[in-house]
Give the backbone structure.
Amino acid sequence: MLTVLKSLETLWLWREQHEGKDIGFVPTMGALHAGHLSLIEKAKSENDIVIVSIFVNPIQFAPNEDYDSYPRPLTKDREKLDNVGVNALWAPNALEMYPEGFETAISVGGITKLLEGSYRPHHFDGVTTVVNKLFNQIRPTRAYFGEKDYQQLQVISKMVKDMDINTKVIGCPIHRDKSGLALSSRNAYLSRDQLDIARRLNSVLKSAPDWMRTMEIAEVEKKLEDILVQADFDKIDYVVIRNAETLKPVKNKHEEKMRVLAAVWLGKTRLIDNMGI
Ligand code: AMP
């Protein structure tokens, strides 16, 4: 049976009752899909109990972004969590998370200024602040994050390391549909035609490892961008090859672990994807 927790008081009581157990935690913004469920399955296989949070975090959205329109199918989400045997759902409202007078922020330096950070300047501060609060509220043994939001995973890992947080951060592979499209709650915004175009994103990125064998990084990045433009994406924020841990530009492609990362637009919808090289 799924226990639904909506106030900090009930969450802390629940937490006290499970002292000494291995607690797996999967933070989400809801509109759950098979990608989220793959994180939950991993959490179930490695812990005594699993708690999922659903919280659409206002402070990680810029004023022009989709905070108001973000899908919130809470009843369906509860059913899904119950069906897969999750023990608890932490679903606070915005006022429970940020009561009147809240004015603290957690900010990771360096890596948050790159890629997503340069297009969404306050985004990562919003993410690290809420994840820090969630970690304090739940004190999980392990927390599960998808490689779908690859930079977020690196940022959270850095925060946990820098702040001595006693939670193990576990990165999980990207769950894709048959065409290779990374599942995302935001895919629901796409029209049929846009979905057809979105499905090309991953197949384009898949060419990168091959090209990297014979071409310079800048040439590969240029070729990827040209092909994405030809594939009818409306705008390319970036498509780059970076060091897989720091996300800084690669200095030596023969020595560093690398990742190709992209952010593109279809109409008003921004899609991200990435893969290892
Ligand atoms: P979100 O609800 O979009 O904030 O995502 C919650 C968590 O699920 C994050 O750690 C995401 O990286 C992860 N996630 C979202 N989509 C996928 C996917 N297709 N495959 C794996 N993890 C995912």
Q: What stands out?
A: The chain has two domains: 3-172, 185-276. The pocket of adenosine monophosphate is lined by residues 28-29, 35-36, 38-39, 145-146, 148-149, 172, 174-175, 182-185 (CB under 6 Å). The chain has a mean pLDDT of 97. The two ends are 42 Å apart (CA to CA).
